[in-house]
Amino acid sequence: MPIAHTLPGPWATTWVSLIEEMLPSGWPWLSGAADRQHLVRRRGRHRRRPGGQVHDHPGPPVPSFAPEAWQEVIADKRRPGKLVRRHFEICVFSCQADELVRGDVAAVDSEAYANWQSQLLSWEDCQPHLAIYCAEVGMPMKTSEFVAQLKLRMTGVAATVDAGYPDNADLLIDEQSRLSLKARKSAGHSAEALKLATAVKDRLPERSLLEILTRTTRHLRWFRHFGPLSGSEAKLADPLERYLLVAFAYGCNLGAAQAARHLGGRVSAHELSYTVRMHVTLAGLNKAIADVVNAYLRLDLPRL
User: Fold this and answer.
1) Is pTM beyond 0.70 here?
2) How far apart are CA 275 and CA 259, in angstroms?
3) 39, 46 in Cβ contact below 8 A?
4) Measuring CA to CA, which residue among 30, 18, 3 is closest to residue 63?
5) pLDDT one-digit tens code per residue, 149-160
6) In 10 A of CB 55, how many CB atoms?
7) What is the pLDDT of residues 111-123, one digit of tens each?
8) What pairs with residue 45 in β-bridges?
């Protein structure tokens, strides 16, 4: 279903026009879905018409709905004014999914579900094949014989369950005749499992994540992208240590408060959050990530 039909109103028209305007060639299934809305250039600046784009700094224009983290990714640096098609597609549907989760966008008729019974074969179509099907699965073709066979099977299963109840210590029946199961207790690890765990532990010695981060700073110096917003030299007592702790706290998704508790008073939550606010920018963080990813791609592991 085209986006213009799924997402009604100006919101759909805006995204469809952006796709047709910014990509080298519009998507075939979106052609004709909305009128194009062009940028107006005036004195080296871009001004947005409703549903267009906004861009007030040098470089290619970027869609106004795209988050800051996406803007550098989707812009095609080799062709100013164009977007990288595949990256832009991912950005569009990522933003669409976020707005659907928040409730800012709703799909038309999303509350209506198809009737699954209408997709089944009619009885007239099944009747000629009924005898062959019953013979293959071992079921009687007549209704009375089918019901009798089903009752016999259910009675047999019920008798088997009743006979095994006294020996089933995990199944309980209370005074209201309600069934409940106890939590299953582990029978312990087998000798083979313990042997495997010992071998893995011997071959993979324990490593410290902070130690690994420290080694990456020596080889990659990714911390050079962090610093005061003014561009002056950091006035922290030990900038490298602080940046390492910040990368550990936020890279592990602990946050400042949780990381400070685990670090045993070595640094406070305020000091960590202050360093993030005053020394780390999105552009610098992306450059540090690029250094680490590029170094990883030069290793042997990604080529396996």
Assistant:
1) no
2) 14
3) yes
4) 18
5) 999 999 999 999
6) 20
7) 778 888 888 888 8
8) 42
